[in-house]
Amino acid sequence: MSPWRLELLRIMRTRRLIALVAMFVILGVGGPVLVHYLPQIIKSKTATSDIKLILPKPKPFDGIQNFANNISSLCTLVVAIVAAASLAIDANPVIAIFYRTRVRKPAPLLVPRFVAVIGASVVALALGTLGAWYETTVLIGSLSFGPLVVGFLLEALWLFFVVSTVAFFSSVIRSVLGVVGATVTLFLALALLESVPGVMSWMPTRLAESEADLIGHPAGVLWHAIVTAGIASLLVFGIAIYLFGRREVSR
């Protein structure tokens, strides 16, 4: 059995694909539903009180914004966990020895796992985006599909950056929990750097909410973040392959 088929079967039979799809679809479908019914829920809770709330009518942008916010937080975390579980090969010494004695070079061992996680994540993102678009259109109002597609592609690049970062930390940290912790810490640091005016436009984290950004207002200088994310992803993944090849398996 080829490594590519093995990784495809692995990500399906370990239910990692189900976890990714379920998270993205639930948040994609549920976000616009929550935005649509939230004013009614709040009014029903305050109906017996003297407080009067005037809530603006939800706009189509609000439904996509809710989904985009979840992509930059919950969905990114789930992708990082699934990627760490797949790419932290040396977390289990017995399994690591089994694979490394049969696949001598790091690239054939790492690349199929990497591509499988990326593919599953992008499929989940596509299904979540379709769900968010459909529910927003039905419940709130129509959306321009062009910016949504471009935003989807940019968010796919964000997921590529996320999985590449996980691959790098997997090459220097053995435990799955440690890899996830290091990845989340880095992303929090990058989010904090967004508050620096001269650095903000270059942060890859700007791509995490691209769908809402492109629908809500012009993209501005998003290409800065595209260049940073693309170059950084390829660079850290290349370093990960190199470090995997040099690391000895602990017993």
Q: Care to describe what's here?
A:
The protein is built from ten helices and no strands. It has one domain. Helix content is 77%, strand content 0%. It has 251 residues and is mainly α. It is elongated. It has helices spanning 3-13, 16-46, 60-87, 93-100, 106-139, 145-172, 176-193, 197-200, 210-216, 222-246. The mean pLDDT is 86.
Present the secondary structure layout.
Blueprint: H1 3-13, H2 16-46, H3 60-87, H4 93-100, H5 106-139, H6 145-172, H7 176-193, H8 197-200, H9 210-216, H10 222-246
How would you sum up this structure in a few lines?
By secondary structure, the chain is mainly alpha-helical.
Instruction: State the low-pLDDT regions, or none.
Output: none
Specify the overall morphology. elongated
Radius of gyration equals 20 Å
How far is it from the N-terminal to the C-terminal residue, by CA? 27 Å
What tags apply to this protein structure?
251 residues, 77% helix, mainly alpha
